[in-house]
Write a structure and sequence with these properties.
By secondary structure, the chain is α/β, with parallel strands linked by helices. It has helices spanning 38-51, 75-88, 102-108, 122-128, 145-156, 185-193, 201-205, 208-220, 247-256, and strands spanning 14-16, 19-21, 27-31, 55-57, 92-95, 111-114, 135-138, 163-167, 197-199, 225-229. Bound molecules: phosphoenolpyruvate and manganese (II) ion.
Length: 258
């Protein structure tokens, strides 16, 4: 059996409003790990818009390692995220963890994120293959390139070729960083699939100070964009504060890339 059927390396540009993801101009996605309150996400969205972000991120259904950690605000979080996106004039991306929430997520979001932990969830991949919204498919934390590409193929072969791949680091023997950011895959999966590929240096390193240099490295190796965690007060964040940039830090980084 041939492995690749639908994604054959022919270039795919993902269109979303005025954005053409994969057309050569990098796309900037940013926002908090989790939507924590209406005020938090609206304040963040308005400031990110000023800074020049293209897509607002924020988790409402959170895949947390511990069941005792903040699990996200659920549908209320989606409402706040949508309101914040509308107020700021930004499209939004949020994670779908469970197929049972597909209809709810469809009502709110512009891009559906499939997280690292769900890259191997084949029923979920098939389900988002049948919808008409772009899918942000994160690399599984232990996924080989071939497995990641075949996960994308699950979505594409069910009818949805609007897929953005996202490298977010993999588990290796190295524990100094949260994950090992594998930038060599950027040109590889771009060539193999034709899909746009973005990088998440926040989860990819887990260390705030590494986000700026790894953003530059991602863009230098041809990434079609970056997704970065930004929080108005990282010290108080309910999830991933240690790897989140403040709005000021993100503004400086974004300006320095011009
Ligand atoms: C996230 O983007 O908030 C997230 C949970 O990422 P990942 O699936 O890469 O761990
Ligand atoms: Mn996070």
């Amino acid at each position: 059996m041939k492995d690749k059927k639908v994604l054959n390396g022919e270039k795919v540009t993902v269109k979303l409003g005025k954005l053409n993801i994969g057309d050569g101009k990098p796309v900037f996605m940013a926002g908090p790990c989790s939507v924590e309150s209406r005020e938090q996400i609206i304040e963040t969205a308005l400031q990110l818009k000023e800074i020049g972000v293209d897509v607002l991120r924020g988790g409402a259904f959170k895949p947390r390692t511990s069941p005792y950690s903040f699990q996200g605000l659920g549908e209320k979080g989606l409402k706040y995220l949508k309101e914040a996106g509308e107020k700021a004039g930004l499209p939004i991306v949020t994670e779908l963890m469970d197929e049972k929430n597909l209809n709810i997520i469809m009502e709110y979001t512009d891009i559906i994120q499939i997280g690292s932990r769900n890259m191997y969830n084949y029923p979920l991949l098939k389900a988002v293959g049948k919808v008409d919204k772009p899918i942000l498919l994160k690399r599984g934390m232990s996924a080989k390139v071939k497995e990641w590409i075949l996960a994308a193929e699950y979505i594409a072969s069910n009818g949805n070729k609007n897929i953005i791949l996202c490298e977010r680091g993999i588990r290796t023997f190295e524990t100094y960083t949260r994950n090992t950011l594998d930038l060599a895959v950027v040109p590889i999966v771009k060539r193999e699939t034709g899909l746009p590929v973005i990088v998440d240096p926040s989860h990819g390193t887990g260390i705030r100070d590494l986000v700026a240099p790894m953003t530059r490295a991602s863009l230098a190796c041809g990434a079609d964009g970056v997704m970065i965690e930004v929080h108005p007060n990282p010290e108080e964040a309910l999830s991933d504060g240690h790897q989140s940039l403040s709005l000021e830090e993100y503004g400086e980084l974004k300006n320095s890339l011009l």
